[in-house]
Write a structure and sequence with these properties.
single chain; five-stranded mixed sheet; two-stranded antiparallel sheet
């Protein structure tokens, strides 16, 4: 639900302790963002500065415009993989133009309340989404652990030890930040043969500048970028809204999903104007932020501002940060993100819920496409739900004492998935000359249900039976009056709806 100005202000500043935690958490996130942004730039086929500048702009802007405090947004792989053909065939300027249009579409989505579509995403799908992301985050660290020396493994183990043991001594400073600083000091001081952030790609020098995309303003340009913009907008919103829901659960608080849609759009437009690619919320960095104590908007802004400071002022030092330190942090994120109780729940939850969760995980991990995995889970949830509801009806048959009338009492929900069983219930021969179909405890949901009732009434009348349908509720009566071919429910037939 929308937040008031007082609530918004509290999301920025509560007290000195919270502000310090937000700043510390933002610093940790900024360091973790660097290799990710460089990697996503490589995926998209662009210069590393495109991903880094995007992360700076998106994080700083979304801190003001977003609907979920404490959530981190930046350049992401989910968006990067979509623009590979666009960059390859038309160049990076078309990427910037497509990102601006992506932002405009997301703002429009917020105005149209498309965030309400999240109501159709079940808890099983969200759990599958979380578990799949945890697996993908861990898998993304494997290249840094293959064909490396023992020093790398030792540093990763040492980093994990600091991350998990330090909180038992003190929580004054986020343990991931301590791990990064300690391992960086050891690596630089001993000149250890380990991969560094600089090995991922050259860090940009200086500050980004504001510039419009150098593309012709023609219908041909729109034709080229629109499909990419629409896909990026949809994937970005899907991942952002799901991540917002996850952070809601972690912090036991609510967020404004509509504002988040518009905020993501505005952040992407600003990112493109400063030479960045599109992005969205990042569950990995959001988990780092929350587990490091970041709850307010200040943590998100600090992440973007600190990233800019690191690139512009401390670039040479940042380039020497050892990758094993960041790998340790991301392994911690994958462990913390995975819903471990979902494994035990496989036996306790209904089989259909477990199938939905596992399907979401398998599709996401197999395709590395978050939107495809979530779509598969939502569709499967819908199929299972329809299958469950279509069995929630019955037809009871009762013959009058004099044998002149047969009454069918229909109970339950009649819609496209249940019409076959509904029709089959009337296929037995009816000897009585008069048939009453009592639908008082039933509800007709769609034109498929009305069509099935039409078919039943027409068949019985062709067989010489008089048919009376009684007991429509108001909604069913309105639907029958509009679409049925047999007698309507109005007073001219003597059947008043109720």
């Amino acid at each position: 639900m929308p937040i008031s100005f007082q609530q918004y202000r509290r999301q920025w500043f509560t007290d000195g302790t919270a502000a310090r935690r937000d700043i510390m958490a933002g610093i940790v996130v900024a360091l973790a963002l660097i290799p990710e942004a460089i990697g996503f730039s490589i995926i998209a086929g662009v210069d590393p500065r495109v991903g880094l500048y995007a992360s700076v702009a998106i994080a700083m802007v979304i801190a003001f415009t977003g609907g979920r405090s404490g959530m981190i947004s930046a350049a992401t792989a989910a968006v990067a993989v979509l623009v590979v053909p666009l960059v390859r065939d038309h160049g990076v300027e078309y990427l910037f133009a497509a990102t601006i249009l992506m932002g405009a579409i997301q703002i429009l989505a917020g105005l149209l309340r498309l965030d309400l579509l999240m109501q159709f995403v079940s808890r099983s799908v969200i759990t599958g989404f979380v578990n799949a992301l945890a697996i993908l985050i861990f898998m993304a660290q494997l290249p840094q652990l293959i064909h490396v020396g023992w020093q790398t493994y030792a540093m990763v183990a040492g980093g994990l030890a600091i991350i998990y043991l330090l909180p038992r001594v003190t929580t004054a400073v986020p343990s991931p930040l301590v791990a990064i600083l300690v391992l960086s000091a050891i690596s630089i001081g001993l000149d250890l043969p380990v991969h560094t952030v600089g090995d991922m790609g050259a860090l940009p020098q200086g500050l980004p500048s504001l510039v419009l995309p150098d593309v012709p303003l023609t219908w041909e340009t729109l034709r080229i970028i629109l499909p990419y913009s629409a896909a990026m907008a949809a994937v970005g919103l899907l991942e952002s809204l799901l991540t917002a829901q996850i952070v809601d659960d972690m912090t036991h608080s609510d967020s404004d999903k509509r504002r988040e849609c518009g905020g993501q759009g505005g952040a992407n437009i600003v990112a493109a104007l400063f030479g960045g690619m599109g992005g969205c919320a990042m569950i990995g960095q959001s988990v780092i932020n929350v587990t490091s104590g970041g709850r307010g908007r200040l943590s998100t802004f600090t992440a973007g501002a600190m990233l800019l400071f690191l690139l512009a002022v401390l670039g040479p030092f940042v380039g020497r940060v050892p990758m094993p330190a960041l790998v340790a942090v991301m392994i911690m994120v994958s462990i913390g993100t995975f819903s471990w109780n979902s494994i035990a729940n496989l036996r306790r939850h209904p089989p259909t819920s477990s199938v939905v969760m596992l399907t979401t995980v398998v599709v996401v991990v197999a395709t590395h496409d978050l939107s495809l995995g979530v779509l598969s889970g939502v569709l499967l949830s819908g199929v299972f739900f329809a299958g469950k509801v279509q069995r929630m009806f019955s037809v009871e048959r009762e013959r009058s004492a004099d044998g002149q009338a047969t009454t069918f009492r229909v109970t339950g929900q009649i819609f496209f998935a249940s019409v076959e069983r509904f029709t089959r219930a009337f296929q037995e021969d009816v000897a009585a000359p008069h048939v009453v179909i009592d639908v008082s405890p039933a509800h007709f949901w769609d034109i498929s249900a009305v069509g099935a009732l039409d078919k039943i009434v027409s068949r019985l009348r062709r067989e010489g039976r008089s048919v009376e349908v009684i007991g429509y509720n108001r909604a069913s009566a309105d639907l029958v009056d509009r679409f049925a071919l047999h007698d309507k429910t109005g007073v001219e037939t003597g059947l008043a709806p109720h």
